[in-house]
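Entry 14. Structure prediction run on the chain below.
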Amino acid sequence: MTGRRARVAVFRPDDDRLADAVSLLEALGAEPVADPMLAVRPTGARPRTDADFVLLTSKTGVELAGDAGWDPGAATVCAIGASTAESLREHGYAPAVVPEEFSSAGLVDALAKEVDGARVEVARSDHGSATLLDGLNDAEAYVHETVLYRLVRPEGAGESADLAAAGELDGALFTSSLTVEHFLDAADERGVREAAIAGLNESVVGAIGAPTRRTAEAAGIEVAVVPESADFEELACTVVEAIVPSYHE
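Output returned:
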């Protein structure tokens, strides 16, 4: 680390989320490696308007629904986390349910006693967790899923895999299971999967939550940081602090 900044990979979609992540890492004194592992492909669909409950699971989904002029009517609007809830408010929607645990399981727990016999619309990406649908079905809800967008790996992604394989990455910030999977796919394509995993295991790897951690660890990636809340700023700050404590002194 002597003579250079900590090099930290971030995999967020190439929009304001990536720009904000880069700015944050630079403010923390780190050198960002911006390597988007997700690209959004809208389907053109919008959430149904005849449901009793509508569940939005991401800021992207809210933005697409809002841009399409979706009107929830009398439905109870639910958000899986604080950032999704904030985006709903920004688009003029009023989230009535935000679980304490920002996860599919947390949302199921928050709604389990409310949705028996109710029509529940789940509007999200094509890579949504089965936990949400299974849990709502177990609660005797009538569940319908609308895929608002697909998540794909951008062409050319993988600079971070090469850096990890060469031992030149000090940290990595995984924000979903899919970012882990796409990182490994990119490493496979470049012929450096084993070396990239070994390189990550010599760095400080952060995962945004327990599902992402499980995906990484199942692939042999050692996760050192999981923030208490599913918050990117907390994730980034904790990882950088673990690499170079003096950044925060």
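The domain at 7-38+155-248 is CATH 3.40.50.10090 (Rossmann fold).
Filed with the rest of this week's runs.
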